Amino acid sequence: MHRGQVSGWDAAVASRIIEARRQEPGAMLPILHDLQETFGYVDRAALPLIADALNLSRAEVHGVVSFYHDFRSEPAGRTQVKICRGEACQAVGCRELAAAAERRHGLTLGETSPAGDLTLEEVFCLGNCALGPAVQVDGESHGRVTPDVLDALIATSRSRGHA
Amino acid sequence: MTVRIHVPADSAAASVGADQVAARLAIEIERAGLDARIVRTGSRGLFWLEPMIEIETAAGPIAYGPVAPADIPGLLAAGLIDGGAHPLRLGPTAAIPYLARQERLTFARCGAIDPVSVDDYRARGGFKGLERALAMKPIEIVEEVTASGLRGRGGAGFPTGIKWRTVLGATADQKHIVCNADEGDSGTFADRMLMEGDPMLLIEGMAIAGLAVGATQGWIYIRSEYPRAVTTFTRAVEACRRAGILGAKVGGTGPAFDITVRMGAGAYVCGEETSLLESLEGKRALVRFKPPLPALKGLFGKPTVINNVLSFAAVPTILADGAKAYADYGMGRSRGTLPFQLAGNIKFGGLVEKAFGMTLGEAIHDFGGGTRSGRPVRAVQVGGPLGAYFPADHLDTPLDYEAFAARKGMLGHGGIVVFDDSVDMAEQARFAFEFCAKESCGKCTPCRIGSTRGRETIEKVIRGEAVERNLALVDDLCRTMTDASLCALGGLTPYPVLSAIEHFPEDFDRAPARVAAE
Ligand SMILES: Cc1cc2nc3c(=O)[nH]c(=O)nc-3n(C[C@H](O)[C@H](O)[C@H](O)COP(=O)(O)O)c2cc1C
Ligand code: SF4
Ligand code: FES
Q1: So where does this one cross the membrane (chain B) (predicted)?
Q2: How is B18-39 classified by DSSP, letter by letter?
Q3: How many alpha carbons fall within 13 Å on the CB side of residue B304?
């Protein structure tokens, strides 16, 4: 999801996560999700561990990780904003919303701020298409979002993170 | 007696403040010492009224909405827990015209029950279909589903009974039931609402499918953009296990059946059934060549039923009330009901479950109230990002698989996205290519590379560069994508592109680019 529960890569923690899942059929995605949930990203150092446990080559594991949009190889910003760019949200101004967010924060969608406090991302549909423009901030959905509402949401997330 | 107050926990309702309403309500009930209990439900799907709360009275539920946290002291003072008068009072929920005019079979319970309570589900007629199925032979269940005329609700509209019969006929030591809950189409949210509001209906449908084909293992693949659906559905599965509905003896007396919940990872193509199977197996989700059909060689190489959420969710009703009762709804070869989703620039956006056959215009104007902006409707995209754009003069098209196909469109998952007259259709065509380029699984060249070239070419048109020649190039590219793509992502991207060009030519007729003037 967003910020990991553990700060910094820890091979022992990763090995425990992998071990707990390795017997499941098709364990790859659940393992990657658990790693990302724990660390906030999938560290490169996890790839050989997964490859070993699932009896695959490192290249195969890398191929899977890089195929899916969700898995990141670097930590995300402390506040993670996903702006929907699906057609239903386009019909009510998500292009303008995204442009305003990019301008105000000096980022383009897909980027994390240099200070590591904010990541802006695009997403195609959050299932909130009747209440667009829709965004997710730290995994929570918000509907009928204007540029000012989005700024307030980001500010709230920041103050929560620093409390 | 303790009064039940229903507050949706649906993620769309939460996106406009339902959690804050529930929190404030809890504080105020405690403070006033009222004998009332908050139950978090799904949504009724009247999103412009969310957060909409309901009080269970002897005469049925009374609705209030949209409620803000600050309204709550006033509502309680006005006698909320007795259904008292207040400017936000909407009256008996069932009498709200938007709901009263629907034909809700699949969504009858959504918003009216605690989604993770087996008792609530059963009290409202749940598990009747499963009980009947437990007394039937597998082939009888398959025949009942076939006779209902149910066609897959995930997009392609393939008859569900025929698919099940193939899996029933296959011999194997293990068979699987897979639920496709990847709902990636923009403008659709019915699967999400059902998983958050009445997940046990889906569990019951999957269990009946297991009985019908002899499968003991079920899987559901839910997209990661739907975290609440993952949580609620998982809790519902656990509750069903505790109640002995899932597990060693399905429904308490049948063979084994259990469900594993898996979360996707943000790839649209995983909604394609063979891509989804690859993903469940832990691989890069490249689309498979067919044959072999998943029905014969599916998950882990075993015979597999793969259906959409709404297809499975229709099955308990078909078993409980009989195939004929279901087939009596609808028109032509489109039987039963479809939960349509009104989205985009629409005043009364939400879920409308109706028999097939209402026109697109009736859905948008009679239910949706026209555009949210108040400007004229200019374009409507039905069926997700691969669906055609229809102009306003196509609003007489009945919502029916064949009627849409006849106008080079598709009904897909029933998502209706409305645009007003400020839309730039060249920009929409450009986006269709961009989406395909971003989401392509990469297996075939026309889809992987053609979509990028298509985007560049439309961008030239938008800039006014050699418009006629570039539009001819787009046409050519689209033909190649249609003919040479392995799956519908590459194969249907021409629908939004070509329909935009055909119906809205004025948006592509750009002034020639001004060449450097000096
Ligand atoms: C690119 C692509 C995306 C799809 N996305 C979905 C989806 O999100 N949900 C779904 O049920 N079917 C989706 N489908 C259709 C499935 O491949 C398949 O037809 C369907 O799951 C079968 O179930 P049904 O017969 O119950 O409709 C998609 C197809 C394609 C080509
Ligand atoms: S059409 Fe596109 S998404 Fe479908 S199989 Fe080919 S490359 Fe993959
Ligand atoms: S298109 Fe934005 S939430 Fe569905």
Answers
A1: none
A2: HHHHHHHHHHHHHHHT--EEEE
A3: 25
Q: Chain B contact for A88, CB < 8 A?
A: yes
Under 8 Å between Cβ of B210 and B171:
no
Q: Letter for the amino acid at A73?
A: S
What pLDDT score does B473 carry?
97
In which band, very low, low, confident or very high, does the pLDDT at B514 lie, cut at 50, 70 and 90? low
Residues recorded for chain A = 163
Contacts of B281 in chain A (CB under 8 A): 25-26
* ipTM score assigned to the predicted complex: 0.96
Q: What is the mean pLDDT of residues B97-126?
A: 97
DSSP reduced 3-state for A20: helix
pLDDT of residue B518: 40
* SS3 readout for A32-92: HHHHHHHHCCCCCCHHHHHHHHHCCCHHHHHHHHHHCCCCCCCCCCCEEEEEECCHHHHCC
Q: Do B418 and A1 touch (CB under 8 A)?
A: no
The candidate with the shortest Cα–Cα distance to B117, out of B54, B222, B205, B198, is B198
User: What pLDDT is stored for residue B513 in this prediction?
Assistant: 58
Listed residue (B319, B330, B322) closest to B411, CA to CA: B330
For B143, residues 6+ apart whose C-beta sits below 8 A from its C-beta are: B161
Burial A90-128 (b: 16+ CB within 10 A, else e): bbbbbeebbebbeeebebebeebeeeebbbbbbbbbbbb
DSSP string, B182-204: ----TT--HHHHHHHH-HHHHHH
Q: Convert the pLDDT of each residue in B319-378 to its tens digit.
A: 999 999 999 999 898 999 999 999 999 999 999 999 999 999 999 999 999 999 999 999
Nearest ligand to the C-alpha of residue B309?
1
Out of B286, B444, B449, mutate this one to test ligand 2's pocket (max ligand atoms within 8 Å of CB): namely B444
C-beta atoms of B346 and A130 within 8 A: yes
pLDDT in tens, A115-129: 999 999 999 999 999
Average pLDDT, rounded, for chain A? 94
**Residue B123 scores a pLDDT above 50:** yes
Query: B39 pLDDT exceeds 50?
Result: yes
**Ligand 2 centroid to B442 CA: how many Å?**
6
